Amino acid sequence: MPKFLIWVAVLAALIALPHGLSFSQQEILVFLTINVLLVASYRLLTLTGEWSLAHVVIMGVGAYSSALLTKKLGVYVPVSMLLGGVVAALIAVLLSFPLFRMKGFYFLIGSFAAGEIIRLLWKRFRDPFGGAKGIKGIDPMPDFSIGFYQFDFFEPTSYYYFAGVIVAFCLWILWRIEKSPVGLTFHAVHWQDKLAQASGVNVRAYRTLAFAIASGFAGISGALLAHYVGTINPNAFDIDLMVFVLTWAIVGGTATFYGPILGCVVLTVLNEIVLRELGLEQMRPLVYGAIMILSILFLPNGLESIVQKLTKRRAAKSAPERSPAE
Amino acid sequence: MLDLLAQTGLNAVYAASYISLVAVGLVLIFGVMGVINFAHGELFMAGAYAIVALYAGLNVPFFLAVAVGLLFVGCLGLLMERALFRPLKDNPLGGLVASIGFLMILQALAVMGFGVRMVHIPPVTQEVIAFSDKVRLPVARLYVIIAAIVLLSALWYFLKRTRFGWALRASAQDPEAAALQGISITQTARIAMFIGAGLAGIAGALTAPLVSVNPHMGHSVIVTAFIVIIVGGVGSLEGAIVASVAYALVHTFVTTFWDGVLADIVGLSLMLVVLIVKPTGLFGSADRA
């Protein structure tokens, strides 16, 4: 029962959260929600042991597809978001043919090159991608009402609730995938690829599957972003954001499902809210960089290792209490 | 037309010179330490700002400023080795993240010290070698070309003909076996880091009067260097140099005859093709992947 109560409390806190924040902080909250999906989908990819640098560009593929589908073909916005994810997954399948010939460091750089080529194509071709200035005036999500709450998508709070529900649903699917036999096979592909192969697992197919699923959800997060900010350009999906995703995942730790999400939330709050409030505007990257270095030096297993230690200690404490009763 | 070809060829030689200085340093660090130094572009940037501070700010003679810049960036490399890469020796992804953190610190320091805007540096020399009316080589660019040839030859001699170089190559090949032979891995790592960083520093210092110096200039440099070391095969110094020349030629010609963005696309596609055909790079071997 207490576990259920904790979830209710978390949910209530998440619903109440935007009401205590300033307008700009509410906007950061929306971006944070979208980035949580981005980094959680990235973890699915890292399950198979590959660290891609194309993930943010794939997110951009979702954003561009959804934006173009609504603008050129008049597709209804929520449908276009879903299609954005589908297109991103398809592009990932295409990319997997050259990329999965490589491993390790070569895959890292190869994926960077592939992503950068896509990004530069957006920049080079003004029709239909809008060139360096990108696409402007993307249709916003149409307002709607669910009886007790009126969604008005010019308000960040409304979009936060909308994106929050979608992201929560996607996280649930990602979590189910990870716990399914397919997810266990992903683990096997990472840690025991020779053994997995010898046991009849098609390693290549599973790597492609993980890449496609992760990319699909990244595409949805991109579409969520596009229809919120209303304008996208190639520079919004450059290596800088990718570096942030990478550090969220590594600083948070990738051994657990919540690790990368924890890293994303903690580092974003630290960077966007704490350091801004302290008035360290110019020194922000410096402090952020120092925190990254310190956390990797002193917390090599990520922030999740703190959580694991705390929960373990609690379990250890409660165990002897229970033993006399037994 | 012939003039244009000759001029573009000269531009390509200049580009190949500074790219190979940066890329060879990156390869050296990766070979010996097994870590991808994402901050390498920012070491280049630090070298350029050494010129801004000393030559443009304090009127120190240019070549003295370049020498100081080389030492300064080399020491930054030593700092990275001691503070980041040595403690994270068994954690390659950790080294990557730490170097990204270091990159952000260097960028922030440059912004705080010199501002975000590009800095104007008075030209070192206005002299131009004119081969014909249209084919000209500014002497400032010639300095970069000479520096690349001299330094890379010296490095080659150091690596292949001296005991230090022999120890360095041994620990790049097999750290454990090298350590068993009495080679100090820490010592070789320190030397590699100093040389690698110093080469990036001197490339930045020498090109500073020729490019727009700003805190984010390292970005395009590191991207180019990554392409080059992949095409050449990670861990291969000769490969890095050959790939630098090839990349500079292709990139300069496509930029001249079409445009810069297309040149980037062509460069990246070329690298992808090399990776597809030979996933370990042109000169690479499989064991270091």
UniProtKB/TrEMBL annotation, chain A:
Major place of residence: membrane
Keywords: Cell membrane, Membrane, Transmembrane, Transmembrane helix
GO MF term list: branched-chain amino acid transmembrane transporter activity
Record-linked InterPro entries: ABC_transp_permease (IPR001851), LivM-like (IPR043428)
Localisation: Cell membrane
GO cellular component, one term: plasma membrane
Membrane-protein topology: Multi-pass membrane protein
TM region positions: 28-45, 52-69, 75-97, 104-122, 158-175, 209-229, 241-274, 286-303
Domain of life: Bacteria
Signal peptide range: none
Classification via PANTHER family: HIGH-AFFINITY BRANCHED-CHAIN AMINO ACID TRANSPORT PROTEIN BRAE, HIGH-AFFINITY BRANCHED-CHAIN AMINO ACID TRANSPORT SYSTEM PERMEASE
Listed name of the protein: Leucine/isoleucine/valine transporter permease subunit
Organism: Leisingera aquaemixtae
Organism ancestry: Bacteria, Pseudomonadati, Pseudomonadota, Alphaproteobacteria, Rhodobacterales
TrEMBL record, chain B:
Swiss-Prot/TrEMBL keywords: Amino-acid transport, Cell membrane, Membrane, Transmembrane, Transmembrane helix, Transport
MF annotations from Gene Ontology: transmembrane transporter activity
Subcellular location per the Swiss-Prot or TrEMBL entry: Cell membrane
Topology relative to the membrane: Multi-pass membrane protein
Transmembrane segments: 12-31, 93-120, 140-159, 191-211, 223-250, 257-277
GO terms under biological process: amino acid transport
Cellular component terms (Gene Ontology): plasma membrane
Taxonomic superkingdom: Bacteria
PANTHER family: ABC TRANSPORTER PERMEASE PROTEIN, BRANCHED-CHAIN AMINO ACID TRANSPORT SYSTEM PERMEASE PROTEIN LIVH
Protein name per UniProt: LIV-I protein H
Gene: livH_3
